[in-house]
Design a protein that fits this description.
single chain; alpha+beta; 6-stranded antiparallel β-sheet
């Protein structure tokens, strides 16, 4: 069986080159506009104040790039293809291509191939680049975000056994910890407390949590303190509970974009195991969006071709206006769909794919409108 590899024509090389230059230029412009107002000025101010050296300031800007490129690449693909096809239409080159018998589908082949390269790079940024850069930024700045978290341990029937309130947690160190130990008795759907522990500090290990300098308050069934004593050390949580509680506390202060895809998948399993439905739905929506982003990049490139494609005397300003409007609408509605998924109003599988379907609908609509 002979497999014929499509021949790369002069046209393919020409359009690929034009789209590449225009897209890279649009990405760089978007990156500069995005990074200049806040990140660049703050870094310069701190460098001039002596907080950062020149090398540190450059590294800070460098490690900020993945977060910016994550947004810049889709926008750059749209604007790059739109600008290229607008110029080709303006110079009547597109008319010549159509006159030679080339269909619109054949015309955008090099654009789709280029978009596939850029979309793959965009996925790698989300998967590895942004989490790696964020860890580097924290190390350079010395930032370790303090976590505040409440972990509730329940039995199989959903009865709360233990609630651990951490007022401050930095890495493995926890401070001002309150432990609520529930009794087995339930009155009018209220679970009574049997003991309350307060610890000034402790350590959250994977096999157990150890609290130091603990004050214990014993409570009667009537809710009255019947005894108060002191304990030097107290072990709470063990095995899976200790590990799960630490991981939940750790990720509670981390944004989804700062978690690599394999770790995000493990975090989703943990959230489902702990029955944290809202957080699970939100993270699942973000997890699915991560895999749909490359497709969005390709769709934006095709949409840019359609908006830039025009006849010699057609008005072209509306193409750029519609293009910017589509991108603006896409990014402004993402938090709305995140909220719908988080609250369980719609399935994350629906909220994640709706924006993608919107672009597919827009492409179909403009394709029919332009009668291509």
């Amino acid at each position: 069986m002979n497999i014929k590899i499509p021949k790369i024509s002069i046209y393919d090389r020409y359009v690929f080159k034009q789209v590449a230059f225009a897209t890279i230029g649009a990405v760089l412009l978007f990156t500069i506009v995005w990074i200049a107002p806040e990140i660049l000025l703050n870094t310069i101010k701190r460098a001039l104040a002596g907080e950062y050296g020149f090398k540190t300031a450059i590294l800070l800007l460098y490690y900020e790039l993945p977060k910016v490129l994550d947004k810049a690449i889709p926008v750059g693909l749209l604007l790059g293809t739109l600008f290229t096809f607008d110029r080709l239409s303006k110079d009547s080159e597109m008319t010549i291509f159509r006159a030679t018998g080339m269909s619109f589908q054949r015309i955008i082949v090099p654009v789709v191939i280029f978009a596939m390269f850029f979309s793959s790079f965009c996925f790698l940024l989300k998967d590895r680049g942004t989490p790696f850069a964020e860890n580097k930024l924290r190390a350079i700045r010395g930032d370790f975000v303090a976590a505040q978290y409440i972990y509730t341990q329940k039995d199989k029937s959903g009865h709360p056994l233990l609630a651990v309130v951490v007022s401050r947690g930095v890495k493995r160190n926890i401070e001002n910890v309150i432990v609520l130990d529930f009794s087995n008795q339930v009155y009018q759907d209220v679970h009574e407390l049997s003991t309350i522990y307060y610890a000034k500090n402790g350590t959250a290990n994977d096999d157990k949590w150890t609290l130091n300098d603990v004050t214990r308050y014993k409570i009667s069934n009537d809710g009255i303190y019947i005894d108060i004593d002191h304990i030097d050390h107290l072990n709470i949580l063990d095995n899976h509970s200790a590990h799960n509680a630490y991981m939940l506390m750790k990720y509670s202060v981390v944004k989804e974009r700062d978690i690599s895809t394999p770790k995000l998948k493990k975090y989703l399993k943990l959230l489902k195991y702990e029955n944290l439905d809202e957080e699970y739905n939100y993270m699942l929506n973000k997890y699915l969006q991560r895999f749909l982003t490359p497709l969005v990049c390709i769709l934006l490139a095709i949409l840019g071709c359609l908006l830039g494609f025009s006849r010699p005397r057609e008005q072209r300003v509306w193409g750029f206006t519609v293009g910017i409007g589509c991108v603006f609408l896409y990014y402004i509605t993402l938090p709305f769909f995140d909220l719908l998924a988080e609250k369980g109003i719609l399935s994350p599988y629906i909220t994640a794919i709706v924006p993608t379907l919107g672009f597919i609908g827009a492409i179909y609509g403009f394709y029919k409108l332009k009668d291509l």
